[in-house]
Amino acid sequence: AYLADGRFEGLKADLENARDETLNDVELWQSGAAVPPAKDPLDAGFIQWPEELLLDLNENGDNSLVARIENCAARIRETADGVVILGIGGSYMGMKAMFDALGHPYHNELSRSERNGVPRIYYEGWNVDSDQQKALLNLCEQRAVCATDNTVADARTAVIVISKSGGTMETAVSFRNFRALIERQFGDDAKRLIVPVTGDSGKLRDLSNEAGFEDVFSIPDGIGGRFSVLTPVGLLPAAVAGLNVRQLLQGAVAMTDHFRHADYGSNAVLDYTAVGHAFEVDQGLTTRILSTWGSKLEAVGLWYDQLLSESLGKHEKGATPLTVVNTRDLHSRGQQHQEGRRDKLITNLLPGAPNSDPLTLPEREDDHDQLNKFAGYPLPKILQAAIDGTNQAYADDNRPTADILLPTVNEHTIGQVFQMLMLATVVEGRLVGTNPYGQPGVEAYKKNMNANLSQG
Ligand code: PA5
């Protein structure tokens, strides 16, 4: 409704141009050329185009990348009962987003058969926290020691180490520790239990070549970490976790197709970009709140926080993303969003129908809490009342909201959301003249950290 105002007429043409440029980048990318507007080839890049992977699967069957990923994942599921995913930033946040959205919320508490043979999932290498890392190392060690025969699956831990550059300190430090543990416990089998995912060159690649691990997966050169969720970076751990990676890719393909063909005004990518951009330039709404309704989508929001900040937070420009989980955060940040500074655009990410029969509110004879008047209400109805009530409260105070509504949360819709938000980030970069690839600001701390360590 806001965009229907004549002031934004030019935006349509600008966004359609940005779409053409984005699609043109794909062609350049596929032909092997660097992608503009990068001046430095290191800043050139693109999103993994999901069609390519499905095409490869159709043409090459068992030799395709998707099939190799699925086979390796099946092997890890059979031989290990825990998998530690080592990575930071774009090298783990996409996987966490998928698994939190699609996995059982108490996955690691379930028995192996309740988990359908999917290993327990742990994340490390995303910080330098001695206590936390030690706790996980001890846990993995004790599991193996407690087992009577350490060849059984329920004793074993596998490690997927993900680093595109292969030189990220946090991940490299934790890999040393976990590699030492796995080698100590399982000897030569470590070659099958450790799977690196890395670029075609770099320290982790060299180390992998030397170590002779059974499987090593590549991250295509031009695809930046935060755009790599649909490469082996996200797909391998997702497949280990029992997610349907083909459905995920098909969802992403459907969104690409929609982006390519749908008109402005009914194009999820262009419209989402337009709303964020228009409110930012017109009303100074520089804080973009992604309001997720249900904890399962929080990690999708955190993945998006990284995507937007690292891609567009440059040249003293770029909106500030912030993820909240509602209704939880209505009791904390909600105050500020309702009455604080008018610098926020709130976008609701709505999970749609629950994946199982909804809980209902039971009736009680005593009714001391006076909830009997709502007895029998399904929880989604109570949630919807909160969503509508919150939107209404913002509207009453002239605070804008937008909605992204998923029909339900599954691999297909999560694939769509990933692709939609990656495309929107690239399109917005084109629109405002910021190269979304590269993250020179992040390199600054890495350089200083390494220099500090070198001083001894
Ligand atoms: O988006 C990015 O490129 C970064 O967030 C990287 O993913 C992160 O710095 C980790 O880098 P690497 O995979 O090289 O260890």
TrEMBL record:
UniProt keyword annotations, A-Z: Cytoplasm, Gluconeogenesis, Glycolysis, Isomerase
Known catalytic reactions: alpha-D-glucose 6-phosphate = beta-D-fructose 6-phosphate
GO cellular component: cytosol
Biological process per Gene Ontology, one example term: glycolytic process
GO MF annotations in UniProt: carbohydrate derivative binding; glucose-6-phosphate isomerase activity; monosaccharide binding
EC top class, as a word: isomerase
Pathway: Carbohydrate degradation; glycolysis; D-glyceraldehyde 3-phosphate and glycerone phosphate from D-glucose: step 2/4
Lineage: superkingdom: Bacteria
Keyword Membrane: no
Record-listed E.C. numbers: 5.3.1.9
Family from the record: Belongs to the GPI family.
Record-given protein name: Glucose-6-phosphate isomerase
Gene name linked to the record: pgi
